[in-house]
Hints:
Strand content: 15-25%
Strand order of the largest sheet: 10-9-11-12-19-18-17-14-15
Helix content: 25-40%
Largest sheet: 9 strands, mixed
Number of helices: 13
Number of domains: 2
Number of strands: 19
Structural class: alpha/beta
Amino acid sequence: MRSLVHTLVLYLATLAVSQPLISADPLDLTLRYRTETSQESGRYHILSRGESWQPSETAIIVCDMWDLHHCLNATKREGEFAPRLEQVLNWAREEGVTIIHSPSSCMDFYEGHAARERAKTAPVSPNLPDEIGEWCHQIPAEERGKYPVDQSDGGEDDDPDEHAAWAAKLDAMGRNPRAPWKRQIDILTIDADQDYISDQGDEVWNILEDRGIKNVILTGVHTNMCVLGRPFGLRQMARNGKNVVLMRDMTDTMYNPKAWPYVSHFTGTDLIVEHIEKFVCPTITSDQLIGGESFVFSQDTRPHIVMLIGEREYRTNETLPKFAIEHLGNDYRVTIIHASEEDKNTFPGIEAVADADLLLVSVRRRTLPPEQLQYVRDHVAAGKPVIGIRTASHAFTLRNKPAPEGYDAWPEFDAQVFGGNYTNHHGNKLVTTISVIKEQANHPILEGVPPDDFTAGGSLYKVRPLAEGTTPLLMGHVEGHDPEPVAWTFERADRGKSFYTSLGHVYDFEREAFVLLLKNAVDSMQDNGIKSE
C-alpha cells in the first residue's frame, strides 16, 4: 500500500511539472530589434515593440554558466552578473516560467539529479527539428551582414601573465586549464522540484514542446559563441519557430580587444548584440522582469554618445558610423540614430537621446514631431554636452518657411546651442583654406592637430558674428572674402558645453586634422564631466 501511495505521489508531482500553468499576469516585455532604413542600405533603425507573454508558455534557457572558465576575465565577469541572474530566475520561477539549466559538458556531475532526470524523461516530440542536436553556425538571415568581430583567437582578453597564473591555478586544482568547468556556477539555484538540466538540443526541444512553450529567453555565456550557436541556442530557436529573445544585459562575449575591429571588450559585446538584433532575434533586459536598472559591468564606464544623423548632402550616414568604430570604440558606447528614408522628418529610435551623455548632431533642415524634438530639447536643458558638425547649424528649421502641421521647428538651435549665426555659405567652387588660430594652438581640442593649413572638403559657411561665450579654434579663408570661424566651443546659457564645426564634408573625414579635431572634441566633452558614474 505504501509503495502504491508513493508511486501516486510521484506521478502527481510529475504531472504538475509537465502541465503548463495558466497565469493571469502576463510578462509585459519591450523587445528591441533593428530594421534596415531601406533595402540593402546597410544602415539600421533601432526599434522596439511591446509583447505580452504568458509565463506558462515561456522558458528561460541558462547557457553555459559554468563554475570556472579558462579565461580569467570571463570567469570574473560571469561571477559579477550571476547574482542578478539568480534574482531573475527566482522571480521567473515564482511566476510560472520554465527554467532550463544548460551547462554544456557537465551532465555527468548532475547524473541522478531530479532536474536532470526530468529532462531526460520528457516525451519525445513528434516535431523534432532536423539537426536540432547540432551546433548552428549561421542562419540564412545572417548572410545579409558581416559578422562584426574577429573571434578566431578564442576571444581571451586576459593579461598574459595573469592568464598564465590562472592556468597554473586551474591545473593545481586538478582542472583542465583549457576546459575547467565541471558544473554550473553555484550562485544559481537549480530547483529540484521543477527546473530542468540538459545540454542536448533534442532534450531541450522535447521539454519546450511538452510544456507548451512558445517563448524562449536565452541568457548566459558567451553570446558570440555558445548562446548563439549551441543546439539549444538563439539560432536554433529562431530558425525552428520559437519566439526567442536574448536577455542582453545577462550575458557576455569572448572577444579580445587586440583583434579586429580593435574596440573595447564591452563595445565588442554591443556589436554582437547589434548583429543579433539585425539578423537573429530581438533582445530584452533583466529590469523588464525584476525592475530596477538593467545590469552594467562595473568596468564598463563608457559614456554614452548618441549620433543623430539626417542629411543627404555630405554622407555622414557613412562617415560617422565608421568614425565611431575606428575612433570611439575603445572608450565610448555609441548609438546611431538615422532619419527615416520614408519620412525624412522622423527619427525612429530617437528615444535613445534620453540616455545620452553626449549628443552629436548631423542633421540638415528637418522638422520633427514635437515629441521627438523634445528629446533634443530635454538633453540641452539638462546641461549635457552637444557636438554639431556641418549642417547642424540649420538642423531643425526649414528655409524661409514654417514647419508643416504636426511638426516642430527650432530655428534658434544654432544660436542657443552653438552660439552660431549661420546665414548661408560661399560658393561651392571657392576653395576653403583652414588655419589654426595661433592664440588657441594649445587648446585641448587642437592637441595633435597639425598646425599647417589644410583644404576643406566643402564650401565655407558664413557664421559671423558668433555669440559671447564662444571660443573660435579654426578659421576658414576663401579668396576675396573675410575669414569665417569654422570650429569653436560655446558655453551655453544653461551652463552646458557645446562644440561646433562647419567642417564635416565626406572628404573632410579623409583628413587627419579633421578626424583628430572631432575625436578631441568628444574627449574634451568627457573631460568636462559627462562620463557616467
